[in-house]
Amino acid sequence: MPDRSRVLSFIDTVVSGAHVEAIAGFYHEDASMRENTREPRRGRAALIAHEAAALARMAKIHTHPAGTFLIDGDQVVVQWTFDITDQQGVTRRMEELSLQRWRGDRIAEERFYYDPASILPITPVTPTTHPAGA
């Protein structure tokens, strides 16, 4: 069962942008990850390789501070928000919940829940000008 400081350290590592390092430092060697209803990826080495490849396809990713996290014994839930910029310069916001099962002080299983239809481009706000006297 993880203690609060260990979970916060994991969250801080992800928020800092060290996604691959978070997997290396906080997941068991036999850990699994699963996207929504897809088949799980298994083994820390495979998780690291998948994450590195995903990050290489992006121009940039900004991880917002976790909105909420809950710890209940070995179960942890983290609410994540990511701004993902692709190679064409389009930034999309993705919000997801991560359900984790910890074994000791490392993650054994993780499943991500998100609605792919909600991953939409972020429209920058541009200042409007008003004619004089309007």
Termini separation: 62 Å
> Would you list the SSEs in sequence order as H and E?
HHEEHEEEEEE
Q: Which structural class do you get from the secondary structure elements?
A: alpha+beta
Number of strands: 8
Question: What is CATH's topology name?
Answer: Nuclear Transport Factor 2, Chain: A
The oligomeric state is: single chain
Helix count equals 3
Proportion of beta-strand residues = 35-45%
Rg from alpha-carbon coordinates? 17 Å
CATH class: Alpha Beta
Unreliable stretches: none
State the shape. Answer: globular
Annotated CATH architecture: Roll
Report mean pLDDT, rounded to a whole number. Answer: 91
Sheet with most strands: 8 strands, mixed
Query: How many separate domains make up the residues?
Result: 1
In short:
This protein is an alpha+beta fold and 134 residues long. The protein has helices at 4-15, 19-26, 44-56, and strands at 27-35, 41-42, 58-63, 69-72, 75-86, 91-103, 106-113, 120-121. A hairpin with a 2-residue loop joins strand 4 (69-72) and strand 5.
